[in-house]
Amino acid sequence: MGLHRPITIGRIDYANVWPIFHYAKQMLPDSRYIIDKRVPSALNGAIQRGEVDITAMSSFAYAQHADDYLLLPDLSVSAKGRVNSILLFMREPIERVLKGRIALTATSATSVHLLQIIMSLYYGASPSYVTMEPDLDSMLQHADAALLIGDPAIQASWQEQGLTVLDLGELWRKWTGCGMTFALLAVRKATAAERPEEVAAVLHALSESKRRSLLNPQPLIDQACRQLGGERAYWSRYFQELSYDFGAEEQAGLQLYFNYAQQLRLLPHEVRMQFFIDDTAIRVNE
Fold first, then answer.
1. 283 pLDDT higher than 60
2. Of 7, 8, 114, 269, which is the most buried if we count CB atoms within 10 A?
3. What EC number is given for this enzyme (predicted)?
């Protein structure tokens, strides 16, 4: 691959990460950076295989291989409560779902394990699970409930199908009092060591995109209406209710999630979050 190839950046192909990436491409020249769009599960594998250098990735997938990565500071896809795009659709009452079968999306890691944690530790239940492609009708033909994430979850929530819908972000908040972080921005340690200035440039571009997007979300709202449908009021609320920071509050909620995952043996080890440190400004001033 060599040290002089372009840096490859993984972008989750869902609206929930748009604020972090919307303006970044114009700050990252094509000759030095490639942006690769995939669903979360595909990016989780891609960074582990070295196909991407920096990526938005599922929080759970990060935890599985945390020793291989550094987190880009103060960037995440989080929610303090309702997330609106991590949804459990139930065609049966919750009492039957807890003893029944749940279809899980094949595109996620964090949300699947969040549901399993909630089912086990909050409800004290042990339903059976089947993993399927994210098609609500097909999933509900084979199960009592279906977990969808991202844009498919949003679009399914607009349909009048007589289903009960649980928002996992809202349920997690009700149970724990914490927010939940669904995705993080991570860089391979090898890339950070070999090309720190280029990693710093990506960090600056993503942070600036976040700042500009939150200052004026209207371009994102317009794009969402054109590309995914729905009303402007919905998308305005959607982007407002998500958090893109990763400060002490977000880290505490995610650490609790990791602890529960370890308790249930979904994770085999403790997770120690490590962050990329941008020392380019320090070197310039020396």
1. no
2. 114
3. 4.2.1.151
Query: What distance, in Å, lies between the first and last C-alpha atoms of the chain?
Result: 33
Segment 165-194 mean pLDDT: 97
pTM above 0.90, yes or no: yes
164-167 and 33-38: which strand pairing?
unpaired
Residues 196 and 279: their CA atoms lie apart, in Å, by 8
For 108-131, the pLDDT digits (tens) are: 889 999 999 999 999 999 999 999
